[in-house]
Write a structure and sequence with these properties.
The chain is mostly beta strands. Helices cover 7% and strands 44% of the residues.
Length: 451
Amino acid sequence: MHMTIKKTLIAAATAAALGSLHTTASAADWVMLQGTEPVGTSSRAEVWGFIQTQYQKNTSDPNASNQYIPNKLVGPQLTSQEQFNVNRARIGVRGAGFPLDDKVNYFLLAEFGKNAITESSSGSTHVTDASITLNHIPGARIRTGLFKYPGAEEGLQAIHVFDYVNFTNVTNQLMLERFSSTYYGANVPPQTLPVVNSLNAFNRPVGAFRDVGIQIFDAFTLDNWEATYAVMIGNGNGLNFGDNDSNKDTYLYLAAEKIFSGTGPLREGLKFFAWSQNGKRTFNGDNSAIGINGAVVEEYDRKRSGLGVKYLARPFRVTAEYMKGKGMIWNGPDKPSFALTTGGGNPNADDNGIFAEASGYYLDGGWYIPSSNWELDLRYDIYHRLEGRTNELEFKTITYGAQYHFNRKTRVAINYEDISATAVNFGALAGPNINLDGVSGVYSVQLTHIF
């Protein structure tokens, strides 16, 4: 069978990335939309960006000692239960070398908002994307630099078209990577309000679903089907330009979509996708010689994989995705060594996340109300952390949402998250449930404007 590279998809890429179209989730090909530019028509420098302002209120109750854990506070500062915030303010430039060479394009983006990228950084601004794509080889485009790695749908898609204010628990905890310090750091205990001792014990920004490396990718069509692949090798060091060890991460991605109609982020279709990640992380996980030169620094596996399906045929959309992880299971921003205990101890202990496993999934549905600017959203997600261990935790959330689109570039999202968190091997007010009991709902309103 003869397969040709899909030109019409690429022609919609810039419009999609700049948000010039109606900002709703879809069965878009994010690998192509974010990594390429329209051949022969792109400008040398297209300035673009977006701003998101929000209000969040967490209604969780404190423990019996009137103390709070991170799940009961509003991030990224984790100092209160409600706040206004400019959570994202990104500006960038992208384009191609046309007319010098329209087969070379670039992508540059910086973050100025207050979120998990900038909260733990040394400054208030952080570069999130800086990449170059070479489109000279048919069927094997090459992208290098800092960019989103191919992976879970919630992380791979453009954040300014995300239908909810917050990620699911499985995406936030399993896929939005946190990087520990080289040496062991003690857990931060629950705090009373106002919080004096920060509950965010990490001193590096989140990975933001990005890595520095090289990716080979492309998309092919046959009749009304499109197949997309991506293979990437990266540092496994998140937003940091350099590497912290000699290990490299590998990323694999494959998607197949039956296209119903449309192009770019508004395209309607039925998409099936699968992905995997495999790498190692380095830190002093067994608490040997705390803070002293010569401490034993060890390497631990970090594996992630998932598969899902996404359907969009207006006025309805449905998405389902399952994810699984092994090793380096994040246990909270107050636990920089990935351990639930405060004393470090044996890394093989069942309370430690560096050897543990986790899994979860989400089901998401949306209804675009005909002849109106409204859409209604409903999402269920469940996450099992430290599976099979003594301190296994189960997070369940039902998110009720509504969005109103003022125009193609401005919308407001209103969410209520009904959250429960339980240590499944303990009764009420026992073990981790001493602090987890009382985790409750989160109200949020977010205004997005794309320019």
